[in-house]
UniProtKB/TrEMBL annotation:
GO terms for molecular function: carboxy-lyase activity; pyridoxal phosphate binding. It comes from Methyloprofundus sedimenti. Belongs to the group II decarboxylase family. This is Pyridoxal-dependent decarboxylase. GO terms for biological process: carboxylic acid metabolic process. The modification N6-(pyridoxal phosphate)lysine is found at K294. Keywords: Decarboxylase, Lyase, Pyridoxal phosphate. SUPFAM superfamilies: PLP-dependent transferases (SSF53383). PANTHER family: GROUP II PYRIDOXAL-5-PHOSPHATE DECARBOXYLASE (PTHR11999), MIP05841P (PTHR11999:SF70). Gene3D superfamilies: 3.90.1150.170, Type I PLP-dependent aspartate aminotransferase-like (Major domain). Pfam families: Pyridoxal_deC (PF00282). Its cofactor is pyridoxal 5'-phosphate. The keyword Secreted does not apply. InterPro entries: Aromatic_deC, PyrdxlP-dep_de-COase, PyrdxlP-dep_Trfase, PyrdxlP-dep_Trfase_major.
Amino acid sequence: MYQEHAECGKLPELLQRLGEDLTNYLRFEHPDAMCNEESWKTALGGPLPDQGIGCEQLLDIIGQHLIPNGSQVPKPGCTSFITTGATSIGVLATLSGVVAAPQRVGLTAFNYLEELSLQWMAEMFALPSTMKGIYSSGGSVANLVALGAARQWAFERLGLNPAENGVQKPCRIYASSACHRTIHRAAAVLGMGRSAVITIATDNNGRLCPNALRRQLQADANTGFVPVAVVANAGTTNTGAIDPLREIAEIAAAYQIWFHVDGAYGLPGILDPRIRPLYEGLSLADSVIVDPHKWLGAPVGIGATYVRDRSILNRAFSQGAADYLEGACHDDNIQNSMLSMGVPYHDFGVELSAPSRGAVVWALIREIGKTGMRERICRHNDMARLVADLARKHPALEVVQEPTLSICCFRYVSDKVQNLNDLNKQIHRHLVQDGRCIPSTTILNGILVIRPCFVGARTTEQHARELVDAVVETGNNLLRDMHPTT
């Protein structure tokens, strides 16, 4: 019979083998997973195993068939999504937590770093020192937690408790047309409904229009709706636009509405001194979110929500008494780390069981410091500006929206083609198929654009230049196929 504990002494050797396989993967010399789909499905699949094969043989399969057929997202040339491959220290810190802190409870070194890393991030991103946070699995849950706090606050002002008795009145959440769709999902999950999210117009740069917000709030006054929150973006997913935070904050304050800032992607941009003034008014927010698994280089699964008064999270999300927990821990004369739950994060959000996320963020910041983070942010913003500059100078390219952060929206143009949207869609598909440069696309005012987002720690200026060259080369080749005689 296979003995699970027998492998414990082999952990160093097994980790070394795994490290070698991951190192090979990070050379990005392997083909895309779809090139040999049948091979790895055969190796990994099959009927439910009756007998185990043991750790060493399984590690062989992982190294030969699983890791090499992973995602394209960590590639330095992949600029599609605002997630990326974790940095090496992020991987190592995560592994440390998986082994040594499998649960977010107790007075341990890992849980000490949960609170410390939240404090470090707040300081690094110029949040008020009074704002406290909680980690979750990413921006989706982080926005949910923030809007749950906003819902609690709005109803408490009416003498009602939505966490206890549910949503008893129709609600309104005000967000721009460029807001992330997780705002709508949060509204649905929190019982307010997706239709509670009222779309506010944006300007030509994708920023929420304060005057449009003011008009909508005035129109909704005395209608019976409960205004739950005004949501602003500190870096939209589409273009990296930063809403006029101070103006929006002042309007929200005038109407006594919770002011939430979604900085899942763009909050670290405040470290770039060239655009720091765009974050003026951030300190007026009632809640702010940021995803360390984006620009900070953490493994996917780490988001953070900050609120001015963390006690409201307890009122909104406390799970209530549980027989198996009550009395298990206390705060008097503690002699063992398991005698106290520590900070009651389990009552501040929607997760009871949760991994050690704080140690990962602590390691990321401790490794390169605030200065290193600033250099990374500035380097990536420079890449977006470089793409824009190269596109402006090339006769076959057009900048559709100037970059604010590390996103640049541009496209291939030609007077020989009537449908430029279709042409650029084809260009994008060829780029993805080729696999060297993998941007995404988006639609701006009816125009389909190529949309690289530079957030990967391993991505360099050369990758930005290669993308522009690849767009031009691919566009030229497609034109040549369309008009072979010209």
